[in-house]
Prior knowledge:
The protein is of the alpha+beta class. The chain has 2 helices and 6 strands; from the N terminus they run E-H-E-E-H-E-E-E. Helices cover 23% and strands 32% of the residues.
Amino acid sequence: MAAVVRQTQEQANAFWADKEYKKWVVTFTAGARGRRRTGESIVGAASSAGARRAGIADMELRGHDWARCAAATVRLATAQDLGCVYVVGKGGAA
């Protein structure tokens, strides 16, 4: 059985470091503890500020207007975020 390798956030940061245009994951959280709303967007942008703007626009397109006022966290996308899986025994994507 082949082992699945997961990319860490540190590895993702290193991969995207020299790229001009990057893929970002923007996570939005709003509301009190009992009524919390969360949402996530995967967007492309040159900077984290641009990613936040693109994430808000994406959430609004999907009908989630609350994201404009929500707290946002922005991080570079890992291979798993983008749907990629590296399987050691296969030598590449499965």
